[in-house]
Design brief:
This protein is an alpha/beta fold. 43% of the residues lie in helices and 16% in strands. The radius of gyration is 14 Å and the shape is globular.
Length: 145
């Protein structure tokens, strides 16, 4: 499990299924981008949100950025710990984390990608780069209005 910010973590699906890791990092919420049914530890205080989105170029993660980012911010603001997970923990979850950094931490696309890569060197967001750049652009346009 990789800590991107003190209350924001990401991992592959194998690690996310570890009761020890969920407990050790005090995870209260999980956002899972899994096509297959992943069994998360039975921890009553841990809420799981599942989104069945493939790691493919034609998948539209953009439509979820603001809603998921607001959910992440709500969890962090309330003192919770959130885990974003996908099969290998290098594509979809990294994309969502970068979108969060862009929207709520005022990172640019480039600095967000650099920050995530410093934590997860295997980051591979090639399928979603255009969506993140569009998201950054739209947020910039909102700031200038």
């Amino acid at each position: 499990m990789i800590s991107v910010l003190p209350n924001l973590h990401m991992s592959d699906s194998y690690t996310a299924q570890s009761k020890f890791m969920i407990s050790h990092f005090h995870i209260t919420h999980v956002i899972s981008f899994e096509r297959a049914e992943v069994r998360f530890p039975d921890i009553p205080e841990c809420n799981v949100i599942r989104l069945n989105i493939k790691d493919e170029v034609n998948q539209n993660l953009f439509q979820y950025f603001k809603v998921i980012n607001d959910e992440i911010m709500k969890v962090i603001s309330s003192g919770g710990n959130i885990l974003v997970t996908s099969t290998r923990g290098t594509g979809r979850c990294c994309t969502i984390v970068i979108a969060f950094l862009i929207q709520h931490c005022r990172f640019t696309f480039s600095s967000g990608l650099e920050h995530v890569k410093s934590k997860q060197p295997a980051t591979n967001i090639a399928n979603f780069t255009d969506q993140l750049r569009r998201f950054e652009y739209e947020l910039e346009q909102m700031d200038t209005d």
